[in-house]
Structure formats: structure tokens, C-alpha cells
Amino acid sequence: MADRQFDADVVVVGGGPAGSATAIACASRGLRVVLCEREPGARDRPGETLHPGVEPLLAQLGLAARLPEVVGARHDGLWIEWGGPRRFEAFGSDAAGPWQGLQVWRADFDALLLDRARSLGVVVREHCAVAGVLEHGSMPGGVMTSTGPITAQIVVDATGASRWLGRTMGIASPARSPRLVARYGYVEGSCPARDEAPLLVGNASGWTWSARVRPRTYQWTSIRFGERAVGEVPDELRGLAALGPERGADVTWRMAERTAGAGWFMVGDSSATLDPTSSHGVLKALLSGMTAAHLIAASIAGKAPADEIAAAYHEWVGGWFAADAARLRDFYRSIGADCFA
Q1: Which of 76, 255, 257, 314 has the fewest C-beta atoms under 10 angstroms from its C-beta?
Q2: What single DSSP character describes residue 245?
Q3: Burial state string for 254-264 with b = 16 or more CB within 10 A and e = fewer than 16
Q4: Element at 195 (helix H, strand E)
């Protein structure tokens, strides 16, 4: 079918890092993109530390110059306390100097990505809920939304843990770990120790993470294996003023049994999820969106059969998921977590 018979080449559902990265990378390749975001605005998430590896990706997305606008703190590594004395682990370095992680305020970071998408011609529809998939023969041909239908050659699910497209198409995302629930919250005040670098404390019952996310604002995140972690504010943050209530998020490891097919892709947490200890959540969200965009452009250009492209993407997602899951499992075993034995 000719392009002019579609409203867009690509419709992306979800405006977080994975969805925005997909939209930006597709638009940079000359594709017409519509992005639907149901709930624009604040996005609190457990763990807002960005791995140093995000900077080259953000540069590719055209965001290097504006990144400092949303960075609340930078650090050369993190303090770790498990199985022995507290120690500092640096991210590494090269000829240019030490690699630095970044702490961001998530709402500002997401808004920056969406602004970049708009600047490239992406049509961002806010307060636009997706209700179903439009069919085009035997494959998706767009989405039905609260504002009407949007036809497209490719549908991308970037809805995160809700996994909208997978649920709609009956694609399971089975648990690949014991059930894990992260409790997290924010406090305001002064904690010089965390201004220097984040801290991860782990033992056989779980772990707690604390970090500064912007001046005078700190986030803590806690997981307790086999139980609900309530009130696990680190001792060094207990005297500071709480900013809102404690929150919770299901961070059980999951991967979709299929992450792509003819006419559709899943990116970010819609495709695969690990808990925040991996420190790769945003990194993988951006990378999955950019990888999907590359393959989407190849599919639309007819450079390879759609099924082969989908299989290549699924293999790529499965490869990094397996590697990161193995590393996390080894970490949890090292601190005596019986549920990962």
C-alpha cells in the first residue's frame, strides 16, 4: 500500500524514553511519526541514575547540548556495601577522563526527549489514550485512540510495564524472577555524603539505593525479597523532609515471548524488564528504541522480509536480557538471596 494511504509511517504508543527515542530515530530517517501519550507530565520512577553509556546515545539523538538542563548531579561511580566493607566502584575512564553517571529529574528528562521529537516533525498527541489495534490484512495497520483512528505501517508499543500491545495481541511476558516490588520515595534537605555519589547497600534480605537527583532532593529505592518493603528510608536520609508519599512499582524481571512481528515492535520495558539494580533501564530503553527505528526503516524500505527483521530484533533483545539477568542473579546470590539460588 502506498505511503499516502497511511496517516503516518510509524505510530508510537507511549512517550517515555523508549517511545521518544524510537520517534526521534525514525523521524531522523525521514519517516512520518505520530506519538500518542496518555498521561503527559511527571514520571516518578524507582532509580533515576543514568549509566555513562547513555551520553553517546543522547548525542546521536541530538540532545548533547541540552542534556545539562536536566542533570541534577554527576558522579564518577557509586558506593557499594555488601559482603564486606563499604567500597567505591568507579565507572571507568578513558583518555578524556573519568566516565560519569548522571542523576536526572525524570519529568524534565522525558520532556526534553519529547521536545526533540517535536523539533524533528513528530506529531505528539498528548492525553491520547489508545483503545485498540487497527488491522491491515494479517498485521497491525495502526491504532484506535480516544481522538480517533491513526493508520500507520508500523505500530510501536512503548507503554512500559502495562505492555499494551502484548496484552492486546495475547503475547505473554512471563516472570523470569521471583516477584520483586520496589518501594521508593523522595526527601528534601542536605545529605553531603550522597551529594558525592549514590550508595547501594545489599544483604540477604534485599537492597536499598539512595542518591541525589537534583540540588537538595534525594531519592531512595528499596527492595525486600519475599516481602513488601515499607518505610525503608536509609538512616542518613531519615531526618530530611519527605516529598510526597512512599510509592511502589512491580520490577519483577520479564521478557515478552515475542518482541516484534510484521508491522509491530515492542521497545523499552514493554519488551523486557529488569529491576533497577541493573542501572541500565534508561540506557536499554533508548537503545531499544534506536535499534527498533533502524529496523523499522529497513522494513519500510523493503530491505529484508518483515519476519526476518522481527526475528533479528527479538534475538537482540533476548541476548542483552539474558546477559544482564545473569549478572544480576550472580549479584543477588553473592549477598545470600536464597530466592535466586
Answers
A1: 257
A2: -
A3: bbbebbbbbbb
A4: helix 192-196
> Crossing angle for the helix pair 306-334 and 281-300, nearest 10 degrees?
170
Burial (CB < 10 A; 0-12, 13-18, 19+), residue 97, is: exposed
Cβ atoms of 104 and 215 within 8 Å: the answer is: no
Sign, Cα dihedral of 213, 218, 223, 229: negative
Measure the CA–CA gap between 189 and 221, rounded to whole angstroms.
Answer: 17
Lowest mean pLDDT among 34-38, 51-55, 129-133, 277-281: 277-281
pLDDT tens, 293-341? 999 999 999 999 999 999 999 999 999 999 999 998 988 888 788 787 6
Angle between helices 106-119 and 17-28 (to 10 degrees): 20
CATH number of 3-70+105-176+254-340: 3.50.50.60
